[in-house]
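Table S2 (continued). Query chain:
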Amino acid sequence: MRKRSTILLLLMLASTLLSGCWDRTEINDVAFILISAIDLEKDGKLRYTVMVPLPGQMGGATGGGGGGGSGGGKSYYIDSEVGNTYRECHMKLQGRMSRRMFLAHRRTILVGEEMARKGIRDLFDTVPRSPESRMTTYLVVTQGKAYDMLQSTPKFEHFPSEAIRELIKSKSVMDINFKDFGIALSLRGADPVAVYMDVKNSEKGIEPSKEVSLKGYAQFRKDKMVGTLEDDAALGLGILNGQKMISHSIALQAGDGQFMSARIFEASTTIDTLLVDQQLQFKIGVKIKATLMEDSTHYDLSQTEKSLNVEADISKRIKHALQELIDASIKNKADSGQFGSAVWRTYPAAWKSQFENDWPQGLKDAKFDIQVQSSLVDTGLIYDNVTRERLTNE
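Corresponding output:
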């Protein structure tokens, strides 16, 4: 009996060490931040904007809600505040919210172009310092004000934040997050880039909408935006970085008013760095695999000669895209292609003594040899326009 009493006493004492759920937080007491937007005001202060979902307005399969909703109002809430620091703005917003703002579900941070040109180094203090923030959060620069993008009304998603995230995740753009940007920012001989977006009005639709649109990439020199990479320059950056382009289509001009479209589904790139008589040389080798999507030239691609012509046109377009990237890097004095890092890794002594202090000025004097090898591996279900014989007879 005494032994049993001792055991019961020990169990009772041990139970006092159990913490239980004293620090629990009910889900109804939390406001999940989906996306943040940061802008620069005219007086130099920061404008911090957040988007929070409203579960009661989201609706189900038969309800309204979604994409701004119908009948029940929007399925999200947007609020904004001005302050001297990010945390000050955050606390001002918290002061008028009945739920605690929670950042762990935030997947994207938007930065207005004016703010990006001033510099975003402070972001890399406030974001990593919070245990709720994730370094895998996407970083996006917007044309104009970032909070304007939160006012977009995409039709395919419940929230503008989700439309932005899905576009970044697509295989036609490099999905650059805070970690990627921070690594490039601290890497020798390299400058970071970020996805660049804007808002476009839909055309010819029954109900007009403001859709999120990819424009390319924002070029940075250190932590300050200095330019943009769009169209072919953006394509060149993706190819140079070995981007997986599952759905990237390019238009090729094959004659006067004649075009064809090809889809690049695989690209591999090598960069060989040479230092000859104190002059830098970069040999860029690219291998492309593509499929034909459309052809208004009425080529008979069963003929080897015609297929080789198409492959030559693809190679020419890719070479032009890479040259556009190089020209933009020289013009804006930003090494977006990270050529300086290749020099540092290959010739560390020469980099330190000859190039480091004034890089990327050295790009202007460097020689670039671009070789592109393209393979047209698929022409679709047909080799030629199915009406070609009729067209010929007529």
